[in-house]
Amino acid sequence: MNTIDTIRHTRQFALQLLNDLTLEQLNEVPTGFNNNIIWNVAHLVAAQQGVCYLRAGRQTRIDEAFYLRFKPGTKPEAIISAAEVEQIKGLLFSTLDTFEADYQNGLFANYNTWTTRYGTTLSNIDEAVQFLQFHEGLHTGYIMAQRRLVKQ
Question: Are residues 60 and 49 in contact, defined by beta-carbon separation less than 8 angstroms?
């Protein structure tokens, strides 16, 4: 299994965690957190776009407003509607499929070295994709913890 497939499997698991939650539960910010389940899911999309596309000097493949709403350092500012939840679910996989094609077409040759907030220095797209595995797992863990709190 390649790294992108690992990310895809992590996203499939994260998506399954949403199956029996109400819109209210998806939007609830549990005590001790500054975000909610659906923000974390949307953040997976936005962060991947920033880490892969923006750091390589490319435009994101998502709407700029979406990126700005869910990028690192943001938090939920409004209730996310049922229609937006469906859009986010679709973007989880469509953006990954697009990224995989862009990666195979060599779009990320001019990747700019940078250091993440976790202290990891990324010098190329392959290191970025490996970092994404960690990042996706971290936020999936947040989703799991928040799920336990909103289901009480």
Answer: yes
